[in-house]
Amino acid sequence: MSEVQIRTQGELIRSREPGHGMPGELFGRQDVFEKDVEIFFQKHWILVGVTADVPEPGDVSTVDIGRASIIMVRDDDENIRTYRNVCRHRGARLKEPGKSTVGMLVCPYHQWTYDLDGSLRHAAHMGRDFDPTCRSLIPVHTRIVGTHVFVCLADEPPADISKLEATMAPRFAPYDLRNTKIAFESEIIENGNWKLVIENNRECYHCAATHPELTASFLPEDFGFCPENLTDEALREIAAYKERNAACQASWESDGFTSATVEWLGEDAVTQFRTQQLVIAGHGESQTISTKAASQKLLGNLQRRDLGDTHLWTHNSWTHVMSDHAVVSYIIPLAPDKTLVRSKWLVHADAVEGVDYQIQDLTEVWVATNAQDKHLVEITHEGTQDPAYRPGVFSPFTESYVEQFSRWYAARLDAYGV
């Protein structure tokens, strides 16, 4: 009996037929998962939180990423710093995952004590020759763009984070996202591979049938449609859609908002991202069931409510910023078939719950959408692990960004010699 040859991760992705899905083993195998975490979550820039996670000096947020763990803290000078969650003595974790408030960072094992700037301030019984200046906490490369806290665990982080920063900083500026607070946050564990979570987020082929709450405000045509065999009525609707988009973008541009699409998604990209100022349906104000603003206290010093949705993708996150609130979601892979999805709803720091906004109005669209996406990812993951699964063909009209993600994934594996 001949032995079954197990293909490597590189062989698997190179076997993918263009315009088709990935082989099922890339979603289910433990060795593939571990390599994905190493490359895509520890060598690339990833989103790990927002500035409102640590609103005051001494506030701490701890995030685990595979076997690595980081501490995000706001120091006494209001700066946000990030460190490896490893004591410089014998390696104990300083903080458990989650949020807390501290005066200093104290190791629970032997009480080595660190200032919020990472410097070691106290280490008992070490003798007079001990030099604490060599034992500061290990810093993590960090970039803050708007409210988004991006980190990279590699020694040499990808330089093209500057493209994302240069593109998004002026787009986020009118919303003053650092002057926000978290009105609501959620955590969902989806029983599916992280790549399937991202693939699902990058197409709206499924939106009309599965996301009734989202499509009250969101226009799925923004992410493609098949122009063939349309009825006269459908053609008129498409023409009206294009006309409205053009009018909205012209209006935004005249008021100083940058609305044009920017894509850095191809095989040459390392820090992959896409942004666009999307038109919102109905009243055009916010991603709510009514399409009106959920918070009467607008972000920043905005006067206009009808600013659509400033949308940002990265390879582990998606963001929607509107005049009244923002929704920021990011993922962390936990296992080949488990992915943590964290979402945060941000409002103006001075907005008052029950006065300026109601939690249900603010959150019901994306709470429902996240639950629906969880189900879609899970049934897809199960199907890709079925012996009958064969990668299917993508729609060239509505799944082009899924194809693009697949090519980028292959290019990044190749760049690291996989």
Structure description:
The protein has 418 residues and is α+β, with helices and mostly antiparallel strands. The chain folds into 2 domains: 46-144, Rieske Iron-sulfur Protein (3-layer Sandwich); 160-415, Naphthalene 1,2-dioxygenase Alpha Subunit, Chain A, domain 1 (Alpha-Beta Complex). 27% of the residues lie in helices and 23% in strands. It is built from 9 helices and 17 strands. The chain has helices at 9-14, 25-28, 30-41, 161-172, 194-201, 207-210, 232-254, 359-384, 400-415; strands at residues 46-50, 59-65, 68-74, 80-84, 98-101, 105-106, 113-114, 120-122, 141-145, 148-152, 180-190, 262-264, 273-278, 309-314, 317-321, 326-335, 338-348. The strands form 4 sheets. It has a 7-stranded antiparallel beta sheet with strand order 11-17-16-15-14-13-12, sandwiched between helices. Strands 4-3-2-5 form a 4-stranded antiparallel beta sheet, with no helix packed on it. Strands 1-10-9 form a 3-stranded antiparallel beta sheet, covered by helices on one side. Strand 14 and strand 15 (317-321) form a beta hairpin. Helix 5 (194-201) packs across helix 8 (359-384). The longest helix is centred in the C-terminal third of the chain and has 26 residues, at 359-384. The protein is globular and about 85 Å long. The two termini are 30 Å apart. The relative contact order is 0.16. The model has no long low-confidence stretch (mean pLDDT 95). InterPro entries: Rieske_2Fe-2S (IPR017941), Rieske_2Fe-2S_sf (IPR036922), Ring_hydroxy_dOase_asu_C_dom (IPR015879), Rng_hydr_dOase-A (IPR001663). GO terms for molecular function: 2 iron, 2 sulfur cluster binding; iron ion binding; oxidoreductase activity.
